[in-house]
Amino acid sequence: MRSLSQFRLPKVLDHADCLQLIHTIHRPVYRGCLQMMYSCGLRLGEAVKIEITDIDRATGNLTVIGKGNRQRLLPIPPSTLQLMRALWQDHRHPKYLFPNRYGKTHVSDSAVRTAFKQAAESLEIKDVTPHVLRHSFATRLLENDMDVRVVQMLLGHRSINSTEIYTHMTTPIQTKVRNTIERIMAHPT
Q: Is residue 92 annotated as part of the catalytic site, yes or no?
């Protein structure tokens, strides 16, 4: 039997809150990692491990190996790509886009998670983790009429059921349902 927590909708922030949270992070590597998560719908574990060679300079696409060792190709928005180029120009690590402080490997999940938590607390945003950026990315796409199958592909979900949870949270769908119910209730038969 499933617990009730397995049926809860994921938390989503609006676009302005996502950007404010990201821009509150002081360390450029952490801020860049979270920006990439939000811009491409990445999991934290995928974002921290991005290597320079994962980004195709000609197309601006990112190759990610996600859960189940499944590969996906993601477009990086030009504004994010420009920020990532500037970030790399700053540290010039030969392998990782988001290197740790010592330059030996990539930044850790826990370091980015801690920076995110501190930023959220400073903005008085409660009960969020970096994964809220992935949820918010998916919701933004659906709010802008992106086909749910495309969102599934971008997120790397094996099952469409995993993606369809976001359709419950989009403002246009909520508004359409509310308006339909209001119209039905206003004209009793």
A: no
Query: Is the alpha carbon torsion for 2, 143, 73, 150 positive or negative?
Result: positive
Is residue 134 among the annotated active site residues?
Answer: yes
Out of 106, 134, 135, 140, the active site residue is 134
Q: Which of 151, 176, 171 is nearest to 162 (CA)?
A: 151
Task: Specify the pLDDT at position 7.
Answer: 55
* Residue stretches of the chain with pLDDT short of 70: 1-9, 168-174, 176-178, 184, 187-189
What's CA 27's distance to the chain center, in Å?
A: 19
Overall size of the chain counted in residues = 189
pLDDT at 81: 95
- The amino acid that residue 17 corresponds to is D
Instruction: Name the catalytic one among 43, 93, 106, 135.
Output: 43
pLDDT at residue 67 in the model: 85
Active site residue 67: yes
Rounded to two decimals, the pTM is 0.84
Asked if 73 contacts 156 with a C-beta cutoff of 8 angstroms, the reply is no
Q: Which of 23, 26, 57, 67 is catalytic?
A: 67
Strands (DSSP E) found in the chain: 55-56, 61-65, 71-75
* pLDDT confidence of residue 1: 42
